[in-house]
């Protein structure tokens, strides 16, 4: 039943947006986690979204007919390759022998925009689910 | 006189099925609003409904030829395959995504209302049939 699929689709989107919110939270929390070496420094993390392919049964089930995809799938989480921010702070306890500390490549403004976008998308998908729920509930009252 | 459900329910039985399929397609568009390179899709409601009705009136729907016994009829149902169209974006985005969430939301809501309308018609038909049977 197509309407029941909407719950999976909107659910997958909500879960993907939650992952996006989680990575944003992690990036924001670590925005000032300094370290003395480039390798140890925290790098901004971003989830990679992709269209979730329909399952084999859905594709071969002729009744399903229209299968554009089945929601969102998080393909993975990648670390940003943007350059780290290096600051000359010889008095810093974590400064290296030359007096430099490395700050994460987290762009707080970008993260805020990402957070708002993720939260809006989450709300919209919750709304989609709500409407689908009303449609299913309606279908159940047929003949009453 | 026998009661024919097909005749009693008319177009709305097909319409309600199509409405729920279209809701799925649009929900998938909105779910993938942040997916790079995702292309928004939709069905041409009118032509699919005409196709379904044509099939009911014994006009054979488009069918693939099986040249081998192991061939499947179709990966996507031939009635609808041509109808699942790609949208033309009003404003192309950098990541290749063609979903306009506001527009999709409007279509989804409109589609849900169409579903309710068709549902109400069917419901009333059933109520009519049931009162005809009971005679009150």
From TrEMBL, chain A:
The lineage's top-level taxon is Bacteria
Signal peptide interval: none
List locations, semicolon-separated.
Bacterial flagellum basal body
Q: Which InterPro entries match?
A: Flag_bb_rod_N, Flagellar_basal_body_rod_CS, Flg_bb/hook_C_dom, FlgC
Residue span, Flagellar basal body rod protein N-terminal domain? 7-32
Task: Print the keywords alphabetically.
Answer: Bacterial flagellum, Cell projection, Cilium, Flagellum
GO terms classed as biological process: bacterial-type flagellum-dependent swarming motility
The UniProt entry's GO CC annotations, sorted and at most eight, read: bacterial-type flagellum basal body, rod
Task: Work out whether the entry's keyword set contains S-adenosyl-L-methionine.
Answer: no
**Subunit structure and binding partners:** The basal body constitutes a major portion of the flagellar organelle and consists of four rings (L,P,S, and M) mounted on a central rod. The rod consists of about 26 subunits of FlgG in the distal portion, and FlgB, FlgC and FlgF are thought to build up the proximal portion of the rod with about 6 subunits each.
Q: Which family does it belong to?
A: Belongs to the flagella basal body rod proteins family.
List the NCBIfam families: FlgC
The name this protein goes by in its record: Flagellar basal-body rod protein FlgC
**What lineage, starting at the top, does this entry show?**
Bacteria, Pseudomonadati, Pseudomonadota, Gammaproteobacteria, Oceanospirillales
UniProtKB/TrEMBL annotation, chain B:
Gene Ontology biological process terms in this record: bacterial-type flagellum-dependent swarming motility
Q: Where is the Flagellar basal body rod protein N-terminal domain?
A: 18-39
- Where's it found, cell-wise? Bacterial flagellum basal body
Q: Keywords on this record?
A: Bacterial flagellum, Cell projection, Cilium, Flagellum
Kindly give the Pfam families that the UniProt entry links to this protein.
Flg_bb_rod
Gene Ontology cellular component list: bacterial-type flagellum basal body, rod
The record's InterPro entries line, in alphabetical order, gives: Flag_bb_rod_N, Flagellar_basal_body_rod_CS, FlgB
What the record says about family reads:
Belongs to the flagella basal body rod proteins family.
Describe its assembly: The basal body constitutes a major portion of the flagellar organelle and consists of a number of rings mounted on a central rod.
Q: Write out the function statement from the record.
A: Structural component of flagellum, the bacterial motility apparatus. Part of the rod structure of flagellar basal body.
Spell out the protein name for this chain: Flagellar basal body rod protein FlgB
Origin species: Neptunomonas japonica JAMM 1380
- Gene name? flgB
